[in-house]
C-alpha cells in the first residue's frame, strides 16, 4: 500500500525537475545578457578613451578655455571631445556628472524600468554592485559674434519645442559675461555619408517619417527651421530613430516679412506682371542688367546651407513659409535616391538657380520666378525648356539602364519627391500630408514587427 503523501511527493518531484532546468536556463540567459551589457559598457569606455587620446591640442585648448570661462563648470560636466563646429557655434560631447540630481524627463532614449534585466535568482544582490552608467550631453558653445537677439531666439525656440517628438530639447543654458552655453542631450547617430547609399526603400521611408514627424511639430508651432540637411538630423540606422537639431537659423513664421507677390491671387499677379517694366521692354531689349537701375535693392532672409535652399529663398521671397523646410527635406530624399552627396553643389545663388533649372527646365523656372516678381533668364544652351523627369534624373544618377527599371516602390518614392520639390511653395506637400502619404507608410509594417519582436523578448 502506497501512502497518498508519497504519491503527491513523487508527482511534485517529477513535475519540478523541468522547472529547475528552466530556471537554470533563464539564469544562464540573464547572465549572457549581463555579460553583453558589460561588453557594451567596455566598448563605450574604450571608445571614450580613444576619443580622449585623439583630441588635438587646439581642441583641448578650446575645451580648457570653456572650462575656465565658466566658474564651477568642471564640477558639473567633464568634456570629452568636439563633435561639431559651425559658423556660429562649436559643440562638445561631455559627461553629465550630476545627472541623477535633476529631473530628466527630457530623456526619452532610455526607459530603464522597461528594459532593465530582472534580478538573477540564486545570486546575492550584494555579490555584484551595479556600475554607474555614464550619461552624456552636448555642450553648445555659442560664439560671441552672434547677436544677443539671435542667441535668445534660439533658446526660446528650443524651449517652446521641448516636448515635441524627434526634436532636440533644451536641457538648460548658462551665461557668464558675454559667453552663452546651451546644454542639450547627446544623441548617438551615424555618419550620413556612411549609410545613405545602402538604404533600402523601407529604410528611406522610416528615415523620412522620423524627419517629417519633427517637421510637423516645428511647423505646428509656426517655426521655420531654415537649415534642414543631413548633418542637422541625427539619425541612428540601428535604432531607426532620428532627432532634429541646430535651431541657430530658425525663426518664427512672419518675422520681418513683407507681402510678396506669391501670396496674391493669380489675377493680381498677372496684372502686375503685364504692367511691369520687364513686360514692356522684354521684346525690344536684349537680356541683361540695366545700365541705371533706380529700383531699391530687394532684401530677404537667405539663411540656410547652399544646395538645400528652396527656390523662393533664391528668388528673395519676402514672405517665406514653412514650405522651405519641405523643399530641403526633398533634397535629402533626392540625395539618397540618386546616391550622390551633395547633389547640388553651387557656389552662389545664381549657380543654384542654374542647377535647379537644369532639372526643371527654363519654362517652369521662369514661372517660379514670376511668382515672386523676379525674372529668370539664361543663355546657357545646355539648359532646355522642358527639363527632365525625376525618374530620368534618378536613373542617370545611379547609372541604370532599361535593363534595371524602377520598382513600384521606387516610383512611389519619386512621386513623393515630386510633391516635396514643387517649385511653387503653395503646391508643396505639408509635413502632415507627408506623414499621411502612402510612401512614408511603407516602412511602418516592418518597424512595428521589429518593435513587437523586441517586446516579445522581454521576460513576463
UniProtKB/TrEMBL annotation:
CDD domains: STKc_Cdc7. GO terms for cellular component: chromatin; chromosome, centromeric region; Dbf4-dependent protein kinase complex. Residues 77-440 form the Protein kinase domain. Residues 1-67, 113-132, 273-303 are annotated as: Disordered. It is an enzyme of class 2 (transferase). Residues 274-287 have a biased composition (Polar residues). SMART domains: S_TKc. Residues 18-55 have a biased composition (Acidic residues). One of its GO terms (molecular function) is ATP binding. Gene3D superfamilies: Phosphorylase Kinase, domain 1 (3.30.200.20), Transferase(Phosphotransferase) domain 1 (1.10.510.10). Pfam families: Pkinase. Keywords: ATP-binding, Kinase, Nucleotide-binding, Serine/threonine-protein kinase, Transferase. PROSITE patterns: PROTEIN_KINASE_DOM, PROTEIN_KINASE_ST. InterPro entries: Kinase-like_dom_sf, Prot_kinase_dom, Ser/Thr_kinase_AS. Its EC number is 2.7.11.1. One of its GO terms (biological process) is G1/S transition of mitotic cell cycle. This is non-specific serine/threonine protein kinase.
Amino acid at each position: 500500500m502506497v501512502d497518498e503523501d508519497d504519491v503527491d511527493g513523487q508527482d511534485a518531484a517529477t513535475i519540478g525537475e523541468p522547472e529547475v532546468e528552466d530556471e537554470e536556463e533563464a539564469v544562464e540567459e540573464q547572465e549572457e545578457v549581463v555579460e553583453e551589457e558589460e561588453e557594451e559598457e567596455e566598448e563605450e569606455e574604450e571608445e571614450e578613451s580613444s576619443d580622449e587620446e585623439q583630441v588635438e591640442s587646439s581642441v583641448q585648448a578650446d575645451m580648457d578655455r570653456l572650462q575656465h570661462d565658466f566658474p564651477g563648470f568642471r564640477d558639473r560636466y567633464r568634456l570629452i571631445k568636439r563633435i561639431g563646429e559651425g559658423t556660429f557655434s562649436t559643440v562638445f560631447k561631455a559627461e553629465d556628472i550630476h545627472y541623477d540630481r535633476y529631473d530628466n524627463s527630457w530623456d526619452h532614449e532610455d526607459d530603464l524600468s522597461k528594459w532593465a534585466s530582472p534580478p538573477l535568482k540564486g545570486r546575492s544582490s550584494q555579490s555584484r554592485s551595479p556600475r554607474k552608467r555614464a550619461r552624456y550631453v552636448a555642450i553648445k558653445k555659442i560664439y560671441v559674434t552672434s547677436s544677443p537677439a539671435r542667441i535668445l531666439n534660439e533658446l526660446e525656440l528650443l524651449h517652446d519645442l521641448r516636448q515635441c517628438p524627434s526634436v532636440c530639447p533644451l536641457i538648460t543654458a548658462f551665461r557668464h559675461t558675454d559667453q552663452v552655453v546651451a546644454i542639450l542631450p547627446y544623441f548617438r547617430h551615424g555618419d550620413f555619408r556612411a549609410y545613405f547609399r545602402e538604404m533600402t526603400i523601407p529604410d528611406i521611408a522610416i528615415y523620412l517619417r522620423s524627419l517629417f514627424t519633427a517637421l510637423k511639430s516645428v511647423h505646428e508651432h509656426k517655426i521655420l527651421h531654415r537649415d534642414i540637411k543631413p548633418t542637422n538630423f541625427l539619425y541612428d540606422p540601428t535604432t531607426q530613430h532620428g532627432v532634429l537639431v541646430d535651431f541657430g537659423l530658425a525663426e518664427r513664421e512672419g518675422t520681418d516679412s513683407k507681402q510678396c507677390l506669391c501670396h496674391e491671387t493669380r489675377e493680381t499677379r498677372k496684372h502686375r506682371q503685364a504692367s511691369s517694366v520687364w513686360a514692356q521692354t522684354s521684346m525690344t531689349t536684349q537680356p541683361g542688367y540695366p545700365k541705371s537701375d533706380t529700383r531699391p535693392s530687394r532684401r530677404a532672409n537667405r539663411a540656410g546651407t547652399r544646395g538645400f535652399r528652396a527656390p523662393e529663398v533664391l528668388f528673395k521671397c519676402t514672405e517665406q513659409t514653412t514650405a522651405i523646410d519641405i523643399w530641403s527635406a526633398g533634397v535629402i530624399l533626392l540625395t539618397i535616391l540618386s546616391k550622390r552627396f551633395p547633389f547640388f553643389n553651387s557656389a552662389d545663388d545664381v549657380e543654384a538657380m542654374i542647377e535647379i533649372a537644369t532639372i526643371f527646365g527654363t519654362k517652369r523656372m521662369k514661372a517660379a520666378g514670376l511668382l515672386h516678381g523676379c525674372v529668370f533668364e539664361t543663355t546657357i544652351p545646355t539648359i532646355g525648356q522642358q527639363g527632365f523627369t525625376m525618374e530620368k534624373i534618378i536613373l542617370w544618377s545611379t547609372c541604370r539602364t532599361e535593363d534595371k527599371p524602377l520598382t513600384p516602390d521606387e516610383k512611389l518614392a519619386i512621386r513623393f519627391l515630386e510633391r516635396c520639390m514643387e517649385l511653387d511653395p503653395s503646391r508643396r506637400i505639408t509635413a502632415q500630408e507627408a506623414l499621411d502619404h502612402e510612401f512614408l507608410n511603407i516602412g511602418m509594417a516592418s518597424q512595428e514587427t521589429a518593435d513587437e519582436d523586441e517586446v516579445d523578448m522581454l521576460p513576463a
